[in-house]
Amino acid sequence: MDQSLGNPDGVRGVLSRTEPYEAPLPTRGHVMSDKARALFDALDLDHDGTLTRTEVIVALREKGPTLAARGVIPFWGVGGDDASAALFDAADQNGDRVLSPEEFAAVVDRRFGW
């Protein structure tokens, strides 16, 4: 069974019930703040949409002071490698050794009060 759908341009499309709809992945109820998104993007050195432990450590070491000066992260949030590793560990809720934007945001929004 097909259902016709209209859009603002006046063009009509067809949604077939035989083709699966791919919904966005659930965010476990957490909406990513603009500040968390800016920090995530700055730390995502390879731009693949996830963060590894190495990316977090290296990016905060190299970019932390500049990010703090730009207001992306609080100055007190810029620590050494151990603090960066602890941030990663706290955020990696499922233990897969990569951080999704949702995992990252849930921790930094709470930790930095965003």
Q: What's the gist of this structure?
A:
The protein is of the alpha+beta class. The protein contains 4 helices and 4 strands; from the N terminus they run E-E-H-E-H-H-E-H. The protein has a two-stranded antiparallel ribbon.
Keywords:
EF_hand_dom, two-stranded antiparallel ribbon, two-stranded antiparallel sheet, globular, Recoverin, domain 1, calcium ion binding, EF-hand domain-containing protein, alpha+beta, 114 residues, EF_Hand_1_Ca_BS, 43% helix, single chain, EF-hand-dom_pair, 4 helices
Structure description:
The structure is a single chain. By secondary structure, this protein is an alpha+beta fold. The protein has a single domain, classed as EF-hand (Recoverin, domain 1, Orthogonal Bundle), CATH 1.10.238.10. The protein is 43% helix and 12% strand. The protein has helices at residues 34-43, 53-69, 81-91, 101-111; strands at residues 2-6, 12-16, 51-52, 98-99. The protein has a two-stranded antiparallel sheet with strand order 1-2. It has a two-stranded antiparallel sheet with strand order 3-4. Strand 1 and strand 2 (12-16) form a beta hairpin. Helix 3 (81-91) crosses helix 4. The longest helix is centred in the middle third of the chain and has 17 residues, at 53-69. The chain is globular, with a radius of gyration of 19 Å. Residues 1-11, 13-17 and 19-27 have low confidence and may be disordered.
